[in-house]
Amino acid sequence: AGFKDSLSLFAGSQQSLLNTEPITLSISLGELKNMIGQEVARNDVVKILKKLGFEIAVNVEQESFNVKVPLFRHDIVNSHDICEEIVRIIGIDNIASTPLNFSEKNRLNKTYFDYKNALNLRRRAADNGFFESVHYVFDSLDELSELNFKPCKIKILNPINNELNTLRPALVNHLLSSSEKNIKNSKRSVRLFELGEVFDENANQGLNLGFVVSGLLKEPTLINGAKGEEANFYAFAAIVQNVIGKFELKPCHEITYLSPYEQAHLYQNGEKIGYIGRVDARVEAKRDLPKTYVCEIDFAKLKFEPVLAVPYSKFQSMTRDLSLIVPENFEAGRIYECIRGLNLKELKEFLPVDIYKDA
Known about the structure:
One of its GO terms (biological process) is phenylalanyl-tRNA aminoacylation. By secondary structure, the protein is an alpha+beta fold. It contains 10 helices and 13 strands.
């Protein structure tokens, strides 16, 4: 009884208000056309959306709509949902089918062509009997100093070891070291090439292509009477030409680690692209190398002209001999420049055949 006396009853009500602003989405006629696949009239869009309970504000200049989504449409969150509502009312069967317009972007750029050209060079080098070698971009500062290379101004704080303590300015030292190791392993003929990064005195990066032939040009076989053919300047130059294409040789004498009597600069289309020559006898003796020839080329300066198919001439080719009397020490390159400067359209090729001298 005491419990009933302490019980009190109250009457009242509670109201919950949802304080939520409706979502406003912006969509244009162009976007609708791209999503649906065909154009829908502006008045039809407005009529459909209003009947579905949407509030619409039309921007006539920009051909766009600001659509206010009803609070009970929780499934409408972006412009694609609005497009879906329009398609649902129009009917998917009433929309004409259109093919997908897919156009691939042209991705053939300089990086791609450099990669393909480098790959072709490596394949052609392998076809001519060279083995590819890969070395670190670091080199020995002492060995480079012996070859009179200028040291890189950028110092390496934590070199791998004492023999790899600077950035390499050229490929030649690594190629000679690899040749030396192969010769000490009883290899009588060594042919190596490398396509690798180099760094100049200011640490500017470049890409070089290097070749080396040490010892015999060809191994002894039954075909050559079990006598190997020793490497020589012109045979080595011919092999390099098979890899990189035609070039011109102009004599030089400033490369100190090459023989002063067998060295030349390589030129393509009048631009110097590298050098070729025999390693100096003192360097060969110090490294226990036989007769060795090296070549190093700046990859960026190589000319890769596309191969064009042209019809054969209706006329037969004609060959003419031209004899010239020149001083004994006259350079053949001057004759080449003179003939090339004539720009004769009919002249396809010219080359020296023989040299005649008085007894």
